[in-house]
Amino acid sequence: MKAETLSLQAAAPKDENRAWRRFRKHRMAVVGSFLLVGLILFVVVGSILIPYERATVPNVRNRLQAPSERSPFGTDQLGQDVLARAIYGGQLSLLIGTSAMFLSILIGTLIGALAGYYGGIVDNLLMRFTEAVMTIPRLFLLLVLAKYFGGRMPSLPFFGRELSGGVLVVVVVIGITSWTSLARIVRAQILSLKNMEFVMAAESLGVPRRRILWRHLLPNTLASIIVSATLGIAGAILSESYVSFLGLGVDAKTPTWGNMMQMGYRYISTAPWMWIFPGVLIVISVLCINFIGDGLRDALDPRSQKG
User: Fold this and answer.
1) DSSP H or E stretch at residue 158
2) Measuring CA to CA, which residue among 282, 246, 253, 264 is closest to residue 143?
3) How far is Cα 90 from Cα 50, in angstroms, rounded to an integer?
């Protein structure tokens, strides 16, 4: 047993190095990583250099100004700086995507792990519940709940500024409706792992089932969870953009890339910069995250012969 433990510890760094080599060979994933880091620096450093008031305080004397040295992204119909709104809106769009992803990962991993390990009636109940959730049209539910609860939720404090309550509605609805695929993946992996020798040895030694599940089985599903997490962020950003573009998501007083495009579509011909810049940022962020997810999937796949 001791020799086996030492061999596993020695193999772990090799597996990490192999995964890193595979990821580096995925050129689009590497490019996506650099672009995503640049995007994060854009919204973080930009908020330090540009005050929040430029994104939210109207100035009608400067309305619909084309991109210039003073306003590189131009101004909107209220005279607000589009660059500032893109920076602070990007913070919120990425926050919504990340928060919804964490909620989705938490629910999906928990349900999939319990269903796969305990089986029987627990598996049947949880999987029937999962299939029921899968039948719900997520976008339709998001639209209805955002419309109903969006204006009724109190504002939320966020680093010294107020966010509309619609942010919480969007995060919760996306999180509780996007976990089903991960739950089925985790369940399938737990089913295959729980019949392996190390699990049966732990059970024969009297190790509690809860400890076996959380300390031995779930760590072996981390690759699927990580890939699902990256792709989940991209999906959440797009979902928020859909709803905000329709005017039913985050209130316009709290900028996001989605509601910036909703405000800009009326000025497509006269002020195209109002929707071009947030649209490009959405495309870049979603593509980068998807490329990183593809790279992680290839790098962490134990069946891959690359690297």
Assistant:
1) strand 156-158
2) 246
3) 14
Percent helix, strand, coil in the chain, to 5, is 75, 5, 25
How crowded is residue 148: how many other Cβ atoms within 10 Å of its Cβ? 11
pLDDT in tens, 6-56: 333 444 455 567 777 777 887 888 898 899 999 999 989 988 888 888 888
The span from the CA of 181 to the CA of 101, in Å, is: 13
Q: Provide the sign of the torsion angle of the four alpha carbons 92, 225, 32, 287, taken in this order.
A: negative
Task: Give the separation between CA 31 and CA 292, rounded to whole angstroms.
Answer: 9
- Backbone phi and psi for residue 157, each to the nearest 5 degrees, phi listed first: -75, 135
pTM: 0.78
Q: Quote the CA–CA distance of 231 and 227 in Å, as a whole number.
A: 6
Closest-CA residue to 40 (of 277, 251, 281, 296):
281
DSSP secondary structure letters along 112-144: HHHHHHH-HHHHHHHHHHHHHHHTS-HHHHHHH
| Contact status, residue 190 vs residue 221, Cβ threshold 8 Å | yes
* Extents of the domains making up the chain: 26-45+81-300
The pLDDT value recorded for residue 38 is 92
Q: pLDDT, tens digit, for every residue of 164-207? A: 667 787 888 888 888 888 888 888 888 888 777 777 777 777 77
Task: Single out the residue of 236, 259, 299, 301 nearest to residue 23, CA to CA.
Answer: 299
Query: By CB neighbour count within 10 A (0-12 exposed, 13-18 middle, 19+ buried), where does 41 fall?
Result: exposed
Distance CA 212, CA 108 (A): 19
Phi/psi class of residue 164: alpha, beta or left (left: φ > 0; alpha: ψ in -120 to 50)?
beta
**Which of the 8 DSSP states describes residue 81?**
B
User: Which CATH number does 26-45+81-300 carry?
Assistant: 1.10.3720.10
For residue 75, the cross-strand partners are 81
